[in-house]
Design brief:
mainly beta; four-stranded antiparallel sheet; 20 strands; about 50% strand
Length: about 400
């Protein structure tokens, strides 16, 4: 009852009797034990009054109970009722005033309510984890080394899917550790900070891709000092002892070891559907970042049939670029958990090791991800103390 007594003194000093506040309207649907914050708008005279209930209604309903059951407190009840009847919006020289557990928010400029509560001003922290199906687009590539000085048109990359690890029938077979599901083939992890719909995030995308060893592409330049200009196999299959000078025996060119794309980005959350069971939210975003990894290349040695030149670089930054992302979420009530689908388009300018030289190409990919999200921190979900009876 102390909050009501405090309310009585505040209202008595600051309110001018014009029109009374509809307490029944403010507290409609509330119970004595209800501590949920609610917002109601009431028009009194020429002004709009925004009322934020942070526990007042629970105390008020308890006061009504006292009024009906406790005859010894009738005098106090009458004083409180009188204070409530004279409460109005005529609070001069103030656009915002807090009375006890009731907040009065007035907009005198254009009479449009600007609702700001404690919760909407707090940061929310979310965590996303997803599995991605990734498509890599062809692009031109340049190889430069002591053996290779060649440009290839429309070079093809493919996803290393490795989804055999998802099949329980293979888990008992040697080399099929089911724990590899966490790492195979492409996963994305995102940590986001959101406030008033503005979302800032850090993402770690784990792609795995290698070249199509059976592709036939147009290439021009020199291989082991031999000029090439035409369409050739990237990796001619070994068929005896008839390898010819100038053949490009590129057995492997892959980015799978420790390959990562780290990005920071911004998105905005648009709530499309909101029900008592949950909501559906659309989040467009963009991000910039770096790609990094450990490229591995393997090529048949010059004038050899069985030996190979190979190069495995250390983990290093390979390129710079960015992504455009569209995400659709289904969130449970209070958004503690949810499911989502995400489409990502990425472009990175790559330059990294190739034998004793370099390779340059444009990495262009599209990822379609399905995953689960968790709310790590949300002030709105914190439990408030129940009002003592």
């Amino acid at each position: 009852m102390r909050s009501l007594i405090f309310l009585f003194f505040i209202l008595s000093l600051n309110a001018i009797a014009q029109e009374s506040i509809d307490i029944d309207f403010i507290c409609n649907g509330k119970t004595i034990a209800d501590t949920k914050i609610s917002i109601k708008k009431q028009t009194i005279g020429p002004k709009d009054l925004i009322i934020v209930d942070e526990g007042f209604c629970a105390a008020y309903l308890e006061f009504i109970k006292v009024k009906n059951e406790d005859t010894q407190n009738k005098e106090m009840v009458q004083d409180i009722e009188k204070a409530l009847e004279i409460a109005s919006t005529s609070i001069e020289n103030n656009q915002y005033q807090k009375c006890g557990n009731l907040d009065f928010n007035l907009d005198y400029s254009d009479q449009k309510s600007k609702i700001k509560t404690e919760n909407t001003d707090k940061w929310k922290i979310r965590f996303y984890a997803s599995h991605s199906f990734t498509t890599y687009y062809n692009s031109d590539i340049e190889f430069r080394s002591t053996r290779y000085n060649v440009d290839i048109k429309d070079y093809a990359w493919v996803e290393r899917s490795s989804r055999k690890f998802f099949n329980p029938k293979t888990w008992m077979i040697e080399g099929n550790n089911p724990a590899q599901i966490i790492d195979e083939p492409t996963n994305t992890f995102v940590l986001s900070l959101e406030k008033n719909g503005h979302e800032f995030f850090l993402s770690a995308f784990h792609p795995k891709f290698f070249h199509d060893a059976e592709q036939v592409k147009y290439m021009k330049g020199t291989i082991d000092g031999i000029e090439v200009d035409g369409e050739y196999l990237i990796n001619r299959p070994f068929d005896g002892y008839n390898q010819s000078p100038g053949e490009m025996e590129l057995a492997r060119n892959q980015n799978t070891g420790g390959e990562m794309i780290f990005e920071v980005g911004y998105g905005h959350r648009f709530k499309l559907i909101d029900t008592k069971f949950g909501n559906i939210t659309y989040v467009p975003s963009f991000a910039v970042g770096v790609s990094a990894g450990e490229n591995l290349t393997v090529i048949v040695k010059e004038d050899q049939w069985w030996d190979f030149d190979d190069y495995e670089e250390k983990f290093t930054v390979q390129g710079l670029g960015g992504s455009i992302t569209n995400r659709l979420e289904f969130n449970s009530k209070n958004e503690r958990i949810g499911l989502f689908y995400e489409n990502k388009l990425s472009y990175f300018k790559q330059e990294h090791g190739f034998l004793d030289g370099t390779q340059k190409y444009d990495l262009m990919l599209q990822g379609n991800s399905f995953g689960i999200k968790f709310m790590i921190h949300n002030p709105k979900n914190k439990k408030t103390k129940r009002i003592k009876k």
